[in-house]
Write a structure and sequence with these properties.
The protein is an alpha+beta fold. Helices cover 33% and strands 39% of the residues. The strands form 3 sheets. A 6-stranded mixed β-sheet has the order 2-13-12-4-7-9. A 4-stranded antiparallel β-sheet has the order 1-3-11-10, with helices on one face.
């Protein structure tokens, strides 16, 4: 796959550089593939992001997945059993968040700009459903949520560096785990000079289910009642068969 991506990189950059010179654009970006296909047995994948810039400057890439609500539970051990004692729901947070840059982002942009553009795990806005949760509680739950996302490889910053192949060309690899959400992903690429964003490019990426996986997914979401009935029937049938086999044994 990587050899194929490098071939795409070589061919596409020739086109990009021609377009960049012709249109005098400061930044041009593309992907090795516009769609991530999720099929049965999908175990994750990676895409190559590549581009060209005109003139000096740093480059930051931020990938954001579809928004989702996420509930974080606090578990405590009571009478030898782990039970949920508290929970806090964060709404409209990125299901996937990934940052790459040629050097640490805090050395590229000032703190107020990082906060405004939500660049960096500490800057991702995470509002809660509750109107006014205790700030200390919210901070603790937010930290737990980010740790869980990082552990599942759904959140990352500087995990994979952005590399310059020359003063003009750059590339990086975006990793998607098996648990990545389906939907439209927005990839923001920023060109920065002297701690100011000179220009940015938005690249859209679609993550979709294909084949039998897609049919089951669509049926479960579009015909949820029927899907639930079939699931119960299948579970009962499996239980009956297991019981029959046990009796014969």
């Amino acid at each position: 796959m990587f050899a194929r991506a490098l071939k795409v990189l070589t061919c596409s950059l020739a086109l990009l550089l021609g377009a960049s010179s012709l249109n005098a654009r400061d930044l041009v970006v593309d992907l090795s593939a516009p769609i991530v296909q999720i099929t049965a047995g999908f175990s994750g994948t990676e895409l190559l992001l590549f581009g060209a810039k005109r003139g000096a400057g740093d480059v930051i890439v931020v990938v954001r997945g579809p928004l989702e609500d996420q509930t974080v539970h606090l578990k405590e051990r009571k009478l030898g059993v782990w039970v949920n004692t508290e929970n806090l729901t964060f709404e409209d947070i990125p299901s996937y968040y990934w940052v790459a840059s040629n050097r640490p982002v805090f050395n590229i942009l000032p703190a107020d700009t990082l906060a405004r553009l939500q660049i960096g795990l500490d800057e991702v806005q995470m509002s809660t459903v509750e109107e006014d949760p205790n700030s200390a509680v919210k901070i603790a739950f937010r930290a737990a949520l980010v740790r869980d996302k990082v552990r599942k490889r759904l959140y990352a910053e500087d995990a994979v560096p952005l590399l310059f192949r020359s003063d003009m060309l750059f590339h990086t690899t975006i990793n998607f785990p098996a648990s990545v959400s389906v939907g439209e992903f927005a990839i923001e690429t920023y060109l920065v000079r002297d701690q100011e964003v000179i220009t940015s490019e938005t690249t859209l990426l679609n993550v979709r289910k294909f084949g039998l996986e897609a049919e089951i997914y669509n049926f479960a979401h579009q015909q949820s009642l029927l899907y639930g009935i079939f699931a119960v029937i299948i579970a009962c049938a499996a239980g009956w068969l297991a019981n029959a086999a046990f009796r014969r044994g």
